[in-house]
Amino acid sequence: MPSRSLNVWLYGVHIARLSEPSRFRYRLDFTDDAVDSFGEGSRVLSLALPVTRTPAVDNRSPTAGLSVSAFIEGLLPEGNLRQHIATNAGVAVTDSMELLARVGAECAGAVQILDAGAAPGPGRVRRLTDDELTRLIADLPTYHLPDGAEPQASLAGIQDKALLAALDDGGWGWPEQGAPSTHIVKPEPLGGSVPHLIQTEDWALHVARAANLAAAESRLATFDQREAIVVTRYDRDASGGRHHQEDFCQAIGLPPQAKYESTAESTRHGSRLKRIARMAAARAEDPDAFRTDLLQAITFNVIIGNGDAHSKNYSLMIDRVGRLSLAPIYDSAPTAYLDPKFKGTGHVINGKTSIDTIAVDDLTGEAVSWGMSARRATAIVTATMENVHDVIATMALPRGAEVVKTNLDSMWVRRAWPVPDSR
Q1: Which residues of the chain have pLDDT under 50?
Q2: For residues 254 and 71, what is the distance between their CA atoms, to the nearest angstrom?
Q3: Residue 140, Cβ neighbours under 10 Å: how many?
Q4: Closest by alpha carbon to 236, among 363, 328, 372?
Q5: 103 — phi, psi (to 5°)?
Q6: Is the Cβ–Cβ distance between 144 and 65 less than 8 Å?
Q7: Comparing C-alpha atoms, which of 382, 231, 372 is closest to residue 296?
Q8: Which of 121, 163, 231, 307 is least crowded, fewest Cβ atoms below 10 Å from its Cβ?
């Protein structure tokens, strides 16, 4: 017997009805309002899910796409938070429909998923006392929520985090009933295998912004002697308005567990970066700017040693008329320089998947496959490397993480990456 149906809202428009005709296979029926508001064929919800008068349905065939389930699963958290939501709801952790019914009113981007008959509203923000806030963050991955509170917001990913709303007086609130969150708070993992992870993530994001790259805003804060990174959501504005986005897995119809690209996949279908660049650039207001932004982001993640730059850690912004742009850099930390076990690129770059093998020619060769000229690609990679090199030379690392600079300098020499002309 199929589970309940849910209504999908985007930018305040009832865009589709979501159902589960068979176990783990989903169906989206777009509404007349969706066609009237966005136009048939519009990809305002997802690059992989155009608005159509015929349903979008997952297919059991191994050769067919599962774009609906990929999009839906991409909205839900993994790990401890997913388990916590399922336990509170008394349902299986695999029951995505029931989980979305609990937390779908506040997801990544501008999409909201609600029970039939419900409509988006402003929700409410419950003020957290200092003690409630400290306990909430300091005790993660155990979710010690304020009395009577339940998780009501969803953000993909496996790292333990809390979604909070910043209050005008500097306090923090717990968003409920679909109220928008404004910040992501991630404490340093307990017993984590990568030391100084959140401190160096904050450092890396500051490096990116200082090098004139679009990156999420962040700062560090301490909760009962446990440090955390506080990241401003780039898909929210100062007034709490929602801006739509989807990650690269959702955009090409891949489930979250396929977030790391294999060389076999790249050989069969072309690199994911190439597919994204070509599909997205065709719908970007400025295709050259999109390719430039993507090449800069990839180059930065290679330079900074981000060994987790997979398809869930890059996203597209989608405006109300379906125009695309690249989301700011986020979840970028120098893991390869903190621990050499974490040196994968996440994506195949010119046939390679290890940071310590990527040369300038690989980055430019990858961009050429997207349709960029070799001369233009080389200029972008070189300028990005030189700008980042200058910033790193002047931006101090967190105490205890100085090994990042040592290992980064060594990598720069080994790979013969360009440095600014000092003359």
Answers
A1: 1, 61-64, 423
A2: 8
A3: 24
A4: 328
A5: -125, 5
A6: no
A7: 382
A8: 121
